[in-house]
Specification:
alpha+beta, outer membrane lipoprotein receptor (LolB), chain A, 14-stranded mixed sheet, 14 strands, globular
Length: 264
């Protein structure tokens, strides 16, 4: 059977199956199908993750930085409306420079010591985490007030997708496109108010090249982020590992580290 005919049959079958569903029922079904495609119970049991690869930063679509990145993530017990996760981002081959986010705040760490990040940067990180589809699927599906609303089927980059608005109890929404064939997330979009200019920024993130990272759990090795249509970040993971029993000291400041003046 040709690929075109297969997609056509799938589209018709999907339309018939969805005819009796409400937009909320269809949206919830698509989201839970994505969870199963990512690994289901194994994905929900993922305690931590280590991503290693090349990270690129851009300004006005021009490359401004390239580094070797190691991102360490550990999930905490979920709390509604909170980013219940710890994350350490180390850069360079010797991992001598990094950024740490935990329940207490965020810090930039260098050989000179640790400098607390500006509150606006910490808030930006936490908001992005709360609206990240992979975090939502791992931590927020059972959160009170979560709503899933299907925008129906469409095509994106010549592939059939299901589009779902996911809104939490505070009214924050992220719109996610799921590949109809693989059921996996391929794109997410949300708007965030810009405190400086008092307007809105549009954040888009694209996910590609999924692979099994252990125990049936899938994770994208290519993540690309745009703001207002301009590329700002891209990472190509060369290694992704899960359930590595990451220790507390990785996500806390050493007792004897020098505390530098806060960032302005």
């Amino acid at each position: 059977m040709s690929g075109v005919r297969r997609i056509a049959i799938l589209t018709v079958a999907s339309a018939l199956a969805c005819a009796a569903e409400t937009a909320q029922e269809r949206g919830k079904r698509v989201v839970y199908e994505a969870l199963e495609a990512l690994g289901g119970k194994a994905y929900l049991a993922m305690e931590d993750r280590v991503e290693s690869g090349r990270a690129y930063s851009f300004f006005h679509d021009r490359l401004t930085g390239l580094t070797i990145a190691h991102i360490y993530t550990r999930y905490l017990a979920p709390e509604p409306g909170k980013a219940s996760v710890r994350e350490r981002q180390n850069f360079s081959k010797d991992q001598s420079y990094g950024v740490l986010f935990n329940e207490q705040g965020g810090w930039e760490i260098t050989f000179r010591g640790a400098r607390e990040l500006a509150p606006s940067r910490i808030a930006l990180y936490r908001d992005s985490m709360l609206r990240n589809i992979f975090y939502i699927l791992r931590q927020r599906l059972n959160e009170p007030g979560m709503d899933f609303y299907s925008q129906g089927a469409d095509r994106w980059e010549n592939k059939p997708v299901e589009i779902v608005d996911i809104t939490d109890a505070s009214g924050q929404t992220v719109t996610v496109s799921f590949n109809q064939l693989s059921k996996l997330p391929v794109r997410q979009v949300f708007r965030r108010r810009n405190p400086e200019f008092k307007d809105f920024d549009t954040e888009e993130t694209f996910f590609d090249k999924y692979r099994d990272v252990g125990g049936g759990v899938k994770w994208p090795e290519n993540i690309r982020r745009l703001r207002n249509g301009e590329k700002i970040y891209e990472m190509f993971s060369e290694s992704v590992e899960i359930n590595k029993d990451l220790k507390d000291d990785l996500f806390t400041l050493p007792a004897k580290i020098t505390i530098l003046p806060p960032a302005k």
